[in-house]
Amino acid sequence: MELLTNGMGLSVVVFFPLISAFIITLIPKAQEQLIKRFALVSSLITFVLSAVLLFQFDFSSADKLQLGNKISWIKSINANYEIGIDGISLPLLVLSTFITVLAIIYSIEHLPEPKSPKGFLALILVLETGMNGTFVALDLILFFVFFEIVLLPMYFMIGIWGDKTVRTVSGFKNQIETRLYASIKFFVFTLFGSAFMLLGFLGLYYRGNKTFSIPELIELGTSGAFTGTFATLVFAVLFLGFAVKVPMWPLHTWLPDAHTAAPTVGSVLLAAILLKLGSYGFVRIAIPILPDQAKAWAPAIAILSAIGIIYGSLACLAQTDLKRLIAFSSVGHMGFVMLGIASLTPIGINAAMIGMVAHGVITGLLFFLSGSMAHTYHTRDMGRLGGNMKLLPKTGALLGFTAMASLGLPGLAGFWGEFMALLGAYNPLDGLNITVFRTSMVAGAIGTVLTAGYLLWMLQRVNLGEPSDEWLDKDLHDADVYELSAWIPLVVLTVLIGVFPKLIFGATNDAVIAMLSKAFGG
Amino acid sequence: MIVQPVLVVAAALFSLGIYGILVRRNAVMVLLSIELILNSVNINFILFDTMLADTLMQGQIFTIFIITIAAAEVGIGLAIVLMLFRNRQTANINEFDLMKW
Amino acid sequence: MVNFKPTVFAEGELVYTDGGILAEYAWLLVVLPFVAALVITFTGKYLPLKGAEVALTTIGIIFLYSAALMYLHITSGVVNEFFINVGSIGVFDIEFGWVVDGLSIMMYFVVGTVALLVFIYATNYMEGEIRYTFFFTSLTLFAGSMLVLVSSPTLIQILIGWELVGVCSYLLIGHYWEKKDNSSAAMKAFITNKIADVGLMIGIIILALNTGTLRISKILYQSTHDYEKLSTVAFVAAILLFVGAMGKSAQFPLHVWLPDAMAGPTPVSALMHAATMVTAGVYLLARMFPFYKAMAPDALDVVMLFGVITLLAAGLIAVVQDDLKKVLAYSTVSQLGYMVAAIGSGAYTAALFHLWTHAFFKALLFLGAGSVIHSVHSNSMLEMGGLRKVMPKTFATFIIGTIALAGLPPFAGFFSKDEILASFNHEGETTFFFIAVLGAFITAFYMTRAVSLTFLGEYRGHGHPHESHNLMTTPLLTLSVFAIASGWVNIPGVYTGFTDWVTTRKNKIVEYHPESFDLFALSSGLLAGLLGIALGYYLYQLQGSAETGDNKIKIQPIWSVLENKYYLDHFYFKFVIDPVKINISKAVDKFNTNVIDRFVNGFGQVASLMGSVVYNNFDQNGIDKLLNMSSTGTDNFGGKVKLLQTGKTQQYLMLFLGGVVTISLLILFIT
Fold first, then answer.
1. What angle, rounded to 10 degrees, do the helices at C412-427 and C348-376 form?
2. Is residue A202 classed exposed, middle or buried when 0-12, 13-18 and 19+ CB atoms within 10 A define those classes?
3. Do B97 and C647 touch (CB under 8 A)?
4. Which residue from C282, C295, C253, C256 is spatially nearest to C350, judged by alpha carbons?
5. What is the pLDDT of residue B91?
6. What's the pLDDT band for A406 if we cut at 50, 70, 90?
7. Is the CB of residue C417 less than 8 Å from the CB of residue C334?
8. Tens-digit pLDDT profile for residues A451-491
9. How many pairs of residues across A and C have Cβ atoms under 8 Å apart?
10. CA A137 to CA A140: how far, in whole Å?
11. Helix (H, G, I), strand (E, B) or coil at A83
12. What pLDDT sits at residue C612?
């Protein structure tokens, strides 16, 4: 067990999937069963290992970085291989390994066209390395590398396995294949943000004693090393980089396209983990290193979040495409997360943390369900669906449950993120403009009504009523054992977190309080 | 020892050979001209060997080599010319420009 | 029956027992239904009674447990609360738990009793209906959620129970979701409540942040001990909490969902939309009553105003309804108005007393209506009539319920309504008092109308109605006992046990409670009730028949206004729902694709345009041209030089000779 605590365990959790992906590329293409089994086993091993780390983790000092290590990496620029986790990153890390297992279980029987388990599963594992790495990295360069690694597999997943239908795009003369447009938009948009983010990192490096180490930079930042226009600019570029990923209004437009075009598993991972990288970046990097700037920018973030909540919900009401609706709902839900973060209070940021996990679980499940339904019905048009409860009772029941969870039903996971974010926004950090935050809070509260509105309307259109004639003579398959075993764990988790939020708060609370008291004193 | 006249003879033979190579159109005559050049060289070798009283007699040994090689060369050369004549019904060297660009 | 004396205060502290093991295990009340719901979901299909037996057993245990608690409470007075920490966030402790005191035990008993009877009734009523098992799952789930709500010692748990009952209501209203009307009604109920919940949520947030706790008892303690910080926000918080209560308890103008909710099966209407769920708002106001009384008396006036408006407005609509269930639904709204108004006037006990009696007689009326509908296969009273002969048990019990609702002694409604009127009179709210009396008159009138149209006269429908199965009539008979006798627990000057029960709480209740009958209020209420019945009987029986009675009261334009429910639904749809659902959301979507996305795409296009400029002008015609030129130059030069290669041996030799000569000459002259 000594081995696990000195950083080895974390490194294995990060790199084991990458190694597995490499080994998968060596297995001949024809041996599909072997490839699938191998991918499943290696993702399971990664998950079990992260669960072991959960037990190794000392929750009584969740505010400290643990299980980490620091090894010199690129000497010439003083970039180190520095890793570690605390209460903030732990839940997200475990969520990431967990969702990956479910994604691979689902993929065993439900590969998107063109069926090629080798490439697809290898990409999922590479993606996992990127995601896990981002959550454990404590060095800006390392963080950036992992942050960018994530892009490639997702780009290929959307671009190769995505939706092949042709669509018109506003401002384009010619029609374009959905997957091409979406994958390029996703890649370029995110890269656009992270390019600026890298600039910010470099700025911090040169002003901050030539170090990329996040803990060291936090020490510097809280002792007032970064001030003035420099700090404003750095926060602005970090904001840009993270806000694109979250995504915050008005930088969100890549999201609906990417989700709509992506294969089921791609959307699941995109919603469940990738979006969290942005909000995690705010909590881990932007706020603790530049607390004063965070304070200056907080009202703007709150307003953008509030707009995002209302805007996302309203846009949902106009959608006819099931997956696009769920994608827009992500804009709204991540708005709550960002509203919590903007309040800069322990309540708000804890709310954001549980909101991230809950959104990962719930929206992940929603994308699983909608993807599976799109696969069964060969359409995502809600006008043609209907009576799903009759045609696919299991899927329909789960869709109903998940929609309820997604609209923030108390007693299920989604509630805590929304309610606590509003609670945080009512009384933001001292010195922040209360009017702005309370207005945002009211907007968010109205957003919950709209959220309930579009989700119930979606249920009415998709789940309820009599099925239209076109499906009656079709042979439609309800959820099979692979789908159910990928979905049920998420249902259980939704209920568990909803009834017992300590599962998340127990880890995050101390860490968040420590981070904030270091940043803002007291 | 008389050196100069012999050298002149050798030079004359060499010049005749060069002239023959450049001017004659018949391939056989060109070959003959080459023989002339070789012989002029032989004369020079003999002359200097004698003049320098080389104990190893390198000049004479070279001369014998050259004669041998000249014989072989003429053999191959005539064979080529014969083959060319057979194919082209002519031994005119101006007509043989197969190796041009 | 020992009369417990709760008025033994020691410096503001109550003397009470902790309830012992019975209170300690009261969490079973909350947890059991959820376990049962899970069991029914997964095994219901394979059980002989399709899951109903699990539901019945569970609810039976809950009834027995709540009865035991009730007995313990009556004999020795129980006040206790238990907490489980489920997470800390910042300095806040999020706690669940259960509270055992007069108010909650009364609610446990109401929920347990009514639910048990409704469940028994439903086993027969729903027989052969679609999704029988799921119906019992949802109903059990509802019982659990309702108990979560009423057992809550923290505001957060109230919110959880609050929305969980909302979801159960959604599931059950939309039970027949094949028809779009039903699922729309379910949606309407959920969304209307969600709108109100925004108020509740923000109210809770304000209270929690200003007191630093989510525990109700602590908040109430602080409000009665003049906590400075709270006083500035108390009014706003109180109003916001009331907005929440308005949604759940169907107060004007958020009552619109309740009549539509009648789309659900009748047992659902009886249990949720008459007896228990809709009283949640009243329960919340009662739970927070010390706070309202001490910190926000102005808010109580608002509460009372809305209560009075509701009781009158809903009562008037009930007069014009032809759907039996809708008459009862509007009647429920109106009676909830009484309760809310009573709380607003400061009459804590009176409100809860009316809640208590109303739960029984309104459940009775709904179940009676269900029995009728079950046998007639129609909701419309125009297709009923003359049923007293064929359904004698239903008729008798329905009459008992009607009299109880109309408020004639010695039936339950008389005592509770009288106490409310008395408290209005005592507070000097003369206008409101007379409106409430008018409301009592209207109530008696529309109930007489309903009875006339349904049971008297001649049968107008098709088919052959018959008396319902014993499983349905037994609950009716049991409930009629309650409808008669449940008022006897609080007779001023005779026996006021109920007052003692519900005021046994950790936080002391300060309220007016009549020591004896207020004869003015009593006589006006009684007179109004008798007049209402008399007018109804006159119009529908003496003057004409059940068929023609309506023609006498069709006074335009009031009739149309009432028939269209004050055009509230039109207003909501035209000015709120449709604009949001259609215009605004479409506009946002258009904005998204045509402005933001266009900008993004434009950005991409500008980039690609710039790219093509750079590519064509700089790359292709610049760098690449140079590169190409160097290669073509070599090519041309080679093409020229190759001409030297004539293949003519003699030419080569000439050149060679020339070269030799040149080099020789060079050597000669340079050296």
1. 140
2. middle
3. yes
4. C282
5. 83
6. very high
7. no
8. 998 999 899 888 888 888 888 877 788 888 888 999 999 99
9. 160
10. 8
11. strand
12. 82
Eight-class DSSP state of C151: T
CB contact under 8 A, C177 and A464: yes
Segments forming the whole domain that contains residue B60? 4-94
What pLDDT is recorded for position A4?
64
B/A Cβ contact: 3+ pairs below 8 Å: no
Show the low-confidence residues of chain C (pLDDT under 50): 1-12
Secondary structure (DSSP) of A180-216: HHHHHHHHHHHHHHHHHHHHHHHHHHHHTTT--BHHH
* DSSP labels, B27-49: HHHHHHHHHHHHHHHHHHHHHHH
pLDDT of residue A99: 92
Closest-approach residue (CA) in chain B for C646: B100
Indicate which of C592, C598, C608, C610 best probes the interface with A, i.e. most A CBs within 10 Å of its own CB.
C592
Whether C536 contacts C444, CB under 8 Å: yes
Closest CA relative to residue A375, chosen from A304, A223, A277, A479: A479
Single-letter amino acid code for the residue at C430: T
Residues within 8 A of C (CB atoms), A 223-282 only: 250, 253-254
Place of tokens 């602590």: C218
Give the pair of three-digit tokens for residue A424: 């945080």
> The CATH number of the domain where B79 resides is what?
1.10.287.3510
Provide Rg for chain A, Cα atoms.
22
Cα–Cα dist A512/A87, whole Å: 8
Q: Chain C residues contacting B, CB < 8 Å? A: 642-643, 645-650, 653-654, 657
H/E segment holding residue A166: strand A166-167
CA–CA distance, A177 with C586 (Å, rounded to integer): 24
The Cα–Cα gap between B18 and B36 comes to 9
Place of tokens 């309610």: A419
Q: How far apart, in whole angstroms, are the C-alpha atoms of residue A134 and residue A190?
A: 15
> Which residue has tokens 């599909």?
A32
Q: Mutating which of A253, A412, A446, A461 best tests the C interface, going by the most C Cβ atoms within 10 A?
A: A253
**DSSP state letter for C381:** G
Nearest residue to A114 (alpha-carbon basis) of A175, A156, A168, A177: A156
The CA dihedral of A474, A479, A480, A484, to the nearest 10 degrees, is 180
Reduce the secondary structure of A454-516 to three states and give it as a string: HHHHHHHHHCCCCCCHHHHCCCCCCCCHHHHHHHHHHHHHHHHHHHCCHHHHHHHHHHHHHHH
Query: Where in chain A are the domains?
Result: 2-520
Q: What angle do CA C337, C338, C344 make, to 5 degrees?
A: 90
Give tens-digit pLDDT for A341-392.
Answer: 999 999 999 999 999 999 999 999 999 999 898 888 888 888 888 888 888 8
Q: Smallest CA–CA separation between C646 and chain B, in Å?
A: 5
Return the biggest CA–CA distance within chain C. 156
Count of the separate structural domains present in chain B: 1
Which of B22, B96, B98 faces C653 most closely, judged by CB atoms?
A: B22
Q: Which tokens sit at B52?
A: 């320098």
Q: Kindly report the number of other CB atoms within 10 A of residue A64's CB atom.
A: 14
Q: Which contiguous run of DSSP H or E holds residue C81?
A: strand C80-89
Q: Is the peptide bond before A256 cis (omega within 30 degrees of 0)?
A: no
**How much is the pLDDT for C9?**
36
Cis omega (within 30 of 0) on the bond before C475?
no
CB contact A434 to C (< 8 Å): no
Do the beta carbons of residue A89 and residue A50 sit within 8 Å?
Answer: no
> Dihedrals φ, ψ of A166, to 5°?
-100, 140
